[in-house]
Write a structure and sequence with these properties.
Blueprint (H helix, E strand, L loop, with lengths): L2 H7 L6 H8 L3 H18 L7 E7 L25 H13 L4 E6 L5 H18 L4 E5 L5 H9 L4 E2 L8 H7 L8 H12 L1
Parallel strand pairs: 1-2, 2-3, 3-4
Helix pairs in contact: 4-5
Length: 194
């Protein structure tokens, strides 16, 4: 490993230029960097593999993001929505096989019936696992009280994608239809952080 790469790797807080230098590594430097990263992983995580189950239970979405394959107006996609029993069966499999966590994911739906269904599922999965299964959900924009309800029911992580933090690019990627609002997306992210 070159002296420069060794200095960067030894820095606990590398700057952007240093990270770019690491990413551009080639040949022997790249191999040395990979060996060093394996050492760090071994030190902090160990030689383990963690299984996490992704349950994509529905591709029905009320949003119409212009880049998305499951956008509302895409009539070429076969829509599906797993039953509660199918979702619970997948969660049970994860529990019985000692997986660390699951993620429940669907298209973005925002209405009371949907949020009530998710709350019921989270309560059942949490009860089935004795609270030992980590649950992440990725279900789009919701009201803050819904996020809190889901947290209380057992979902302690939430994945809310934001494709860009650039307001103008966001406007190009999303139709002007009342369903897509940059400020609302940011507000939801802030609610989730709290």
């Amino acid at each position: 490993m070159s002296k420069r790469i060794a200095e960067i790797v030894g820095n606990d807080n590398p700057g952007v230029d240093e990270i770019v230098t690491l990413l551009k590594s080639e040949g022997k430097e790249k191999a040395a960097l990979f060996r060093k990263s394996a050492e760090v992983k071994e030190k902090y995580v160990g030689n383990k593999v963690y299984y996490r189950g992704l349950i994509e239970f529905s591709n029905i979405c009320q949003k119409n993001c212009l880049y998305c394959g499951i956008r509302k107006d895409n009539n070429e996609v076969d829509r599906y929505n797993l039953s509660d029993d199918e979702i619970l069966s997948a969660a049970r499999f994860a529990i019985e096989n000692n997986w660390g966590s699951i993620a429940l994911q669907s298209g973005e739906i925002e209405h009371a019936g949907f949020s009530d269904r998710i709350t019921r599922l989270l309560n059942k999965i949490t009860k089935m696992s004795g609270g030992k299964l980590g649950i992440t959900i990725s279900l789009g924009e919701q009201e803050e009280d819904v996020y809190r309800e889901w947290f209380k029911a057992g979902a302690h992580r939430y994945l809310l994608r934001i494709e860009t933090s650039n307001r103008n690019l966001y406007a190009k990627l999303h139709p002007v239809d009342g369903s897509h609002n940059f400020d609302r997306r940011i507000s939801c992210l802030k609610s989730l952080r709290e």
